[in-house]
Design goal:
The complex is a heterodimer of chains A (328) and B (227).
Chain A lengths: L7 H7 L3 H8 L10 H7 L2 H7 L3 H20 L7 E5 L12 E5 L3 E5 L6 H10 L10 E4 L17 E5 L10 H11 L5 H15 L15 H14 L5 E5 L8 H10 L3 E5 L3 H5 L3 E6 L2 E7 L2 H25 L6
Parallel strand pairs in A: 3-7, 3-8, 5-6, 6-7
Antiparallel strand pairs in A: 1-2, 1-4, 8-9
Helix pairs in contact in A: 7-8, 8-9
Chain B lengths: L1 E7 L5 H13 L5 E7 L5 H7 L4 E5 L5 H18 L4 E7 L13 E7 L6 H4 L2 H4 L3 E5 L6 H14 L4 E4 L8 H9 L45
Parallel strand pairs in B: 1-4, 1-5, 2-3, 2-4, 5-6, 6-7
Helix pairs in contact in B: 1-7
The chains are: A alpha/beta (328), B alpha/beta (227).
The complex binds adenosine-5'-triphosphate (ATP), guanosine-5'-diphosphate, magnesium ion (2 copies) and zinc ion (ZN) (2 copies).
Chain lengths: 328, 227
Amino acid sequence: MNIEKMKLREIFEKQPVAKDFFDSIGIEIIDDNLTLNEYVEKVDEEKLEDLGLSKDFILENFKEFLSNLSDIESNQLQQVKSITIIGGYNKLGEKENIEIEIKAGEIISIVGPTGSGKSRLLADIEWMAQGDTPTKRKILLNGEVPDKDLRFSSEFKLVAQLSQNMNFVIDLSVREFLLLHAESRFVQNKEEIVERVIEKANQLAGESFTGETPLTSLSGGQSRALMIADTAILSKSPIILIDEIENAGIDRKKALNLLVEEQKIVLMATHDPILALMGDKRFVISHGGIVKILETTEEEKKLLSKLEELDRTLLEYRNRLRFGERLS
Amino acid sequence: MKLITISGPPSSGKTAVIMKVIESLKQRNIKVGVVKFDCLLTDDDLLFKRHDIPVLKGLSGALCPDHYFVSNIEKCFNWGKEEGLDILISESAGLCNRCSPHIKDITAVCVIDNLSGLNTPKKIGPMLKSADIVIITKGDIVSQAEREVFAAKVRQVNPTAKILHVNGLTGQGAYEFTLLLMDSEDVETLEGKSLRFSMPSALCSYCLGETRIGEKYQVGNVRKMDV
Ligand SMILES: Nc1ncnc2c1ncn2[C@@H]1O[C@H](COP(=O)(O)OP(=O)(O)OP(=O)(O)O)[C@@H](O)[C@H]1O
Ligand SMILES: Nc1nc2c(ncn2[C@@H]2O[C@H](COP(=O)(O)OP(=O)(O)O)[C@@H](O)[C@H]2O)c(=O)[nH]1
Ligand SMILES: [Mg+2]
Ligand SMILES: [Mg+2]
Ligand SMILES: [Zn+2]
Ligand SMILES: [Zn+2]
């Protein structure tokens, strides 16, 4: 659209959220029957001075704001069907001889000793490294070199992160907050999606909660369940990085399944064999390079069932301990 | 030498991020120094000294630290050149939400943290709105959803900035931030450069030391509420 010629009212009819821009910089729109230029000419100088704004700032930034919105609508950014990691050099300067493609819906575990470079690998992916990080790795999206501007686009964040230390800190109810999240992503039918997130989160969590529950009173398990359901359904990032998920108050297998159903690429840095074996493959990192890629074998999957059994037994003992029983 | 102005609300993580950035630049043999501007008190300079980072400290006392900044930055800039720095970073606490140390053609960074509240980006003036790079910290302790909502709020008030997430504790994102800093232009002198935004003139009687309450003591640029 040619915003120079359009009246503000016409712009707002096409893009109702465009109003938020003026709200967020503290300028009220009293007469929307003007073009942007006409409007800015009329804003009181003293008011601008108070707010620390200039006419040029409003003109330039409003146009940029609209162009960000249309990027979101064109949707073209969001379809990531695969990423490719092209090896660089390890810490000893030796070549990392790999080129691996990871497809949407795959779960990869990343294992290796402390300091081996797991976090660096995840950071390379997040940054879409092009030989410009210490590892000299290159990352492709859908088989191609990604546009450099994507690195700073807030509409396209390649990677969403989930980690053990994360908490909800906002003082809102679950539903109020999810609506806010949905609005910030400009999703259509937001009420519907929000209810779906709450329903899915409840399927993952040990104890149930409602849309009215305040975020800050969720238990650890409920918070993790909500974070995963929200990330699976509301976050547009195609890749999810998980830094361990504690096995308390949440069904980890269902959680991973939900992410896979939503066609996410899941990368998990973990030392927990149960979580690691839930992956389709695992990357073994040593001295800053990927040294092995192991596919989870049938035998390992059988072992996984055994480990899960053990885990359940342990959990039972833990619960009995809590309730003051004698263990035998 | 490159000059980078870094500002942001108190405790947003400016010093933590600067430390990580310098660690990363040192590994590439790039020499960095810091000027720290604050109001009454700061220990940041000791932290920098302990890490053998050349540092200057300026305390503005009763003045707005950003006003103090403008009157002193040229001197500090010349000090940095004499020290043979490749990059001089100025850290100033944005105590006055209306003023900002950002200078035209000098890379301007605002550091703001995920814990500061969703309405904070709206409330911060040119320090955030006119920054080239916005660094968001403390993403390690809030949920992915809150990070996304917060970044969207920042994007709303500054649609043109590059927004980067940096963890001040682990340094995640700091390396990437340095790549951006290395892109900024080298500067010969600050003479003739101007601020991105004028600073409000503080010229009521109270700016000049008046303490008594009452109409007759008020002169100059006085504004009254509608009550
Ligand atoms: N290929 C490489 N070349 C140079 N430096 C590297 C390489 N890989 C990793 N590093 C550096 O090694 C250090 C340790 O790596 P990293 O933090 O990724 O380890 P980690 O496996 O995540 O450890 P932890 O288990 O303790 O979290 C980092 O400073 C990282 O930048
Ligand atoms: N968890 C967490 N804490 C941080 C982060 N960045 C800074 N901090 C902490 O926040 C506090 C204030 O940081 P500081 O750098 O002194 O803030 P400044 O006043 O802006 O310079 C310190 O205790 C830091 O350790 C971060 O990314 N995550
Ligand atoms: Mg790590
Ligand atoms: Mg500080
Ligand atoms: Zn001021
Ligand atoms: Zn005054």
